[in-house]
From TrEMBL:
This is 3-oxoacyl-[acyl-carrier-protein] reductase. The gene is fabG. One of its GO terms (biological process) is fatty acid biosynthetic process. The active site is at residue 156. It comes from the Bacteria. NADP(+) binds at residues 13-16, 91, 156-160, 189. Its EC number is 1.1.1.100. Residues 7-187 form the Ketoreductase domain.
Length: 248
């Protein structure tokens, strides 16, 4: 059964990693996919072709989610190209890890802008469309780090915890218009973001996870599919940990 037949989804940061996995699963379920990237034009084009081959409409847009005006322009462009927006996945994110003692003001601001302000920008931009439609699903990609904190990631943890507060507030504000907003908190998902870590650290993570493996982009994409589809029609304001049992 195709769960997103005919729906239009915007996914930020889908040129690789988790976002790319979400785009593929959504396309397999019949969604038309508008996705963004920051600089990976080549992989964005490759993804666009891969998705289109599945028989749906797909287009990649170079757009900085941290920029308020660019986010608005992106949504205007998607409306012109696709005619509607049913689902927004706020997935774009970065890390700039350091102990607080060594963390620069610039690295704090950058992580907050790209991870958290982007969610405000994009949600504001799709809000009017979803209000008019009297339906919509917004999914924010937080992290277990936003739920429980992590030494060396104060900026990232603050941005991801902020996303959870934003998610719950939007769910309360827009629920009466049938607009749902949920967050996913992935644990250790093996992507380019985690490939920066050294092998021992990665193995240590795997060993500490009850399911004894890192997650895949598809593991997270399947949770997104649930939130994006009508399968979760009565679920809003929730945080789902997709972490192999790391958080209980
Ligand atoms: P990734 O492999 O580093 O991919 C990040 C994606 O975001 C890329 O497509 C990148 O585009 C895009 N991006 C970066 N800055 C952007 C901006 N300003 N505007 C628009 N797009 C931007 O990351 P990932 O591991 O897939 O993570 C995806 C999300 O899941 C992030 O929010 C991350 O915090 C969260 N998460 C990841 C893990 C994990 O273990 N991997 C765990 C918990 C949460 P370019 O390719 O053009 O740079």
């Amino acid at each position: 059964m195709k769960l997103l037949e005919g729906k239009v989804a915007i996914i930020t940061g889908a040129s690789r990693g988790i976002g790319s996995g979400i785009a593929k699963v959504f396309a397999q379920h019949g969604a038309n996919v508008a996705f963004t990237y920051s600089s990976s034009a080549e992989s964005a084009l490759a993804l666009e072709n891969e998705l289109t081959a599945l028989g749906i409409k797909a287009k990649g847009y170079k757009s900085n989610a941290a920029d308020f005006n660019e986010a608005q322009k992106l949504v205007d462009d998607v409306m012109a190209d696709f005619g509607n927006v049913d689902v927004l996945i706020n997935n774009a994110g970065i890390t700039k890890d350091n102990l607080l003692m060594r963390m620069s003001e610039e690295d704090f601001d950058k992580v907050i802008e790209i991870n958290l302000k982007s969610v405000f920008n994009m949600t504001k931009a799709v809000q009017k469309i979803m209000l008019k439609n009297r339906k919509g699903s917004i999914v924010n990609m937080s992290s277990v780090v936003g739920v429980k904190g992590n030494a060396g990631q104060a900026n990232y943890a603050a941005s991801k915890a902020g996303m959870i507060g934003f998610t719950k507030s939007v769910a309360l504000e827009l629920g009466s218009r049938n607009i749902r907003c949920n967050a996913i908190a992935p644990g250790f998902i093996e992507t380019e973001m985690t490939a920066k870590l050294n092998d021992d650290v990665v193995q240590g993570w795997r060993d500490s996870i009850p399911l004894k493996r890192g997650g895949t982009p598809e593991d997270v994409a399947n949770a997104c599919l649930f939130f994006a589809s009508d399968m979760s029609a009565y679920v809003s304001g929730q945080v789902l940990n997709v972490c192999g049992g790391m958080l209980t």
